[in-house]
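Project standup — Tuesday

K.O.: blocked on the structure for the chain from last sprint. Re-posting the sequence here as requested.
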Amino acid sequence: MTTAGLVLTGVGALVHVYIWVLESLLWTTDRARATFGTTPQDAAATRSMAYNQGFYNLFLAVLVAVGTVVLATGATAAGASLVFAGAGSMVAAGLVLLTSDRTKTRPALVQLTPPLLGVVLLAVGLAA
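H.V.: unblocked you, prediction finished:
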């Protein structure tokens, strides 16, 4: 269960790295604008905000990645704490998106489902 939990939280981390790329590096491109439903004018006006927000997503992914490595080295409490903090924040952010704009249900579920399942499986695995 622990391995499955780490794999799923890792998937969540990869999703958040992808979001970082879109928000922080590609925000004004056709691809990012299509993904987020923005016009060229909206993208230009919100570029600095998206750049900042993208880094939040990257930092959550880094927490999960570092926690996974730390856990693998045998420091279970420290590693699990980092994974739970990063993945739990991913779930919370997905819930905020879901409750703030129902038209964003699909992206919210993409954002929150892998880390949620991962947190549950990791908790079960560590409790065993």
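K.O.: great, moving the ticket to review. The chain has one domain: 2-116. The chain has a mean pLDDT of 97.
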